[in-house]
Amino acid sequence: MKNLSIILLILFFISCKEERVFTKSKVDHRAFTWTKPVSNDHSSQIAKSYEESLKIKPANFSDIDSLISEKEVQDFIRKQDTNYDKFELESLPSFKANNQPESIIKIIAKNQGINKSFYKYDIDGNGLTDIIAFAGGKSTIALMNFGKQKIVKQIDMYHIEPVVVKIIPARKSRLKVYTVPSTRWEYGKPVKPTSVELTFRENAFVEFNDDPTNKKINKIEFAASMCFGTCPDFQLTLNKNNISYFIAKHYNFNQQVNKQGDVEEGFFKGKINDKDFERIEDAFNYIDFENLKSEYYISATDMPSVTVVITYDNGKVKKIYDYGLRGTYGLHEVYKMLFSLRFTQKWIETKEVLGVRMKDVF
């Protein structure tokens, strides 16, 4: 009996070991299945074909069309926005990968023929040449050309993960963005590389949608939380064609950390400008808010979060919680619109109205 017990114990440990090996292999395969690198010759052919597809003369000549070298483009970008005065061009194949996600990004870039540090094309179709520029694995931007005015737009939304951006000529979506999350795991599930098609709309890059919805939004409730710092803490209740409310809790008007305490900054009421409400309603419809996920998270700590509750079509409700404010490109841009309402509307300070304050939002 003793010998039998020993044999059973040995078999148990062997089976456990085999199961661990099998499980690990299976999960790794699911998490990082991606195309194998193409040959150098094939990659060169893809790159040449890609560059040829971008050689379409813009309707109007601009100063960007005269830029040829990396130095010229780099200096030009630095002059347009002081936030990018140290921007350094570097192609994706050239930068040194420090981890597996960055190595995969280099593979994707090679497979897509993205071997230069910048590309020029009329991305938004306004007849003027724009620029897609890579700073290796550090940053990817679009310099949008509006004639005398040039605007830098960050395309790597997380600012911590390298992306591959490919221009899609003659398509309304215009850009395809490939991302490899910096984490291999999220809530016990493997994270896979993703791609999304973007279009430039309302002065921002958002997910392309060829069939926007037309939901009638009656009310938008929006709550933004603090972070480990001075992120604004506030709530908005926006009622279409009626009185709206703004609860300024912390860091809306006062950015001094030590003077906030538990005292809120004020309770305000006012009527939202009709065009501003319609613009936000249109943005939510374009990103098809009804079919977005209910929760979004990024793999970082001490970040702010938002909760948005949309009441539409006579009583339907959609609630979205977003930790990190990076659920989608489209959501990120709508959040910016909502944040700006704190200072663009005519708010009147008043006594708090019962029932307005959102509950259980975080």
List descriptors.
single chain, 362 residues, alpha+beta, Mago nashi protein, 2 domains, eight-stranded mixed β-sheet, four-stranded antiparallel β-sheet, 6 helices, 27% helix, elongated
The helix-and-strand class reads: alpha+beta
Task: Indicate the low-confidence ranges by residue numbers.
Answer: 4-34
Mean pLDDT value: 85
Task: List the strand order in the largest sheet.
Answer: 15-17-16-11-12-13-14-18
- Count of discrete alpha- or pi-helical segments spanning 4 or more residues: 6
Please compute the radius of gyration using only Cα atoms.
25 Å
User: How much of the sequence is in beta strands?
Assistant: 25-35%
End-to-end C-alpha gap: 58 Å
Percent of residues in helices: 25-40%
Tell me what the structure shows:
The protein has six helices and 18 strands. The protein has 362 residues and is of the alpha+beta class. It has two domains: 40-207, no CATH class; 217-349, Mago nashi protein (2-Layer Sandwich), CATH 3.30.1560.10. A hairpin with a 3-residue loop joins strand 12 (233-239) and strand 13 (243-250). The relative contact order is 0.10.
